[in-house]
Design brief:
The protein is mostly helical. The chain has one domain: NCX, central ion-binding region (A middle domain of Talin 1). Helix content is 80%, strand content 1%. It contains 14 helices and 2 strands. A two-stranded antiparallel ribbon has the order 1-2. It is globular.
């Protein structure tokens, strides 16, 4: 029972820590007169991926490479099938547009690069350098697109100025939020990894399966909450940008930084099956965006059913 408490508390601490980290960092950045666009492309985008980063880094350091990679792969699968599928059950989610198509193709391209790296087990520091260079190129492309009057997926995906109205104003409070977030994230990650490791041991399943399912769903909760709130506010088109941006950051930033810290071995089940599922659902999203232009109720229901089937198959 203790292991389940560790996972639940760990994920809750991760979500809370990531939230106050972003709020504190954004508030300080605004006081330094950093443009909102730059804040969205850097601080907020990176901050919302912080839970996955600390989970993967902690797991890799204790020798749970399957959990480290599974967290990223599973989060990317959950983001598309669950985070986009569930809101569509309440309101049709538009996903048409040149910017959406372009960034989905970037996501697929990065997924293919990541898959190629996984074949050369383990992932090493030079893989991390390549992923971080690709992330830098992507961020530059987003910045140029947005400043030239186009649409940046990360700007769409992240909270706008009205959503940041609750960010703390006093410098001391902003600093306190920032420090608290930095302190809580590694604590939450360590609790989650300890609990996940114990659950995997008790049930005789691999740490990769726990990372692909339980931990991935937990760390995708912020994206799910953001997408559901976007639907409630009548701005459901934001959900697609949120997911695409998150998936790109998961691969490029999280795995890039994790492999700089230590070598990561993904495990045979991820190479043999799960990474192909990650690619398949990315292609599904591209086809839906290209031909259907929106995620309808029935498409969303199909996506949720696919995710439930995937989780069930993973545990089997």
């Amino acid at each position: 029972m203790t292991q389940y408490i560790f996972v639940a508390v760990g994920i809750a601490v991760l979500v809370f820590g990531g939230d106050i980290l972003v709020r504190g960092a954004v508030s300080l950045a605004e006081r330094l007169a950093i443009p909102p666009l730059v804040i969205g492309l850097t601080i907020v985008s990176f901050g919302t991926s912080a839970p996955e980063l600390f989970i993967s880094a902690d797991a890799a350091l204790v020798g749970l490479g399957g959990l480290a990679v599974g967290n990223v792969v599973g989060s990317n699968i959950a983001n598309i099938l669950l985070v986009l599928g569930l809101p569509a059950l309440f309101m049709k989610t538009p996903c048409a547009g040149r910017a959406v198509d372009r960034n989905i193709m970037i996501m697929i391209g990065l997924t293919l690069v990541f898959m190629a790296m996984l074949y050369f087990d383990p992932l090493r520091w030079h893989d991390g350098i390549i992923l971080l260079i690709l992330l830098g190129l992507f961020l530059r492309e987003q910045y140029v697109t947005a400043t030239s009057g186009g649409t940046s997926v990360l700007v769409e995906a992240e909270p706008e100025s009205d959503k940041l109205a609750n960010a703390p104003d006093p410098v001391w409070k902003s600093t306190a939020f920032l420090i608290a977030g930095i302190a809580l994230l590694p604590l939450g990650a360590h609790l989650t990894v300890l609990g996940a490791q114990e659950i995997a041991s008790n049930f005789g399943i691999s740490d990769a399966v726990i990372g692909l399912t339980v931990v991935a769903i937990g760390t995708s909760l912020p994206e799910l909450a953001a997408s559901l709130m976007a639907v409630v506010r009548g701005n459901s088109s934001v959900a697609v940008g949120n997911v695409v941006g998150s998936n790109i950051f998961n691969i490029a930033a999280i795995m890039g930084l994790t492999t700089l810290i230590t070598d990561v071995s993904p495990g045979p089940e991820i190479i043999g099956f799960d990474m192909w599922v990650m690619l398949a659902v990315a292609i599904i999203l591209a086809l839906v965006a290209r031909f259907l232009k929106a995620i309808s109720f029935w498409t969303g229901l199909g996506m949720v059913c696919l995710y439930v089937s995937y989780v069930a198959y993973s545990f089997m």
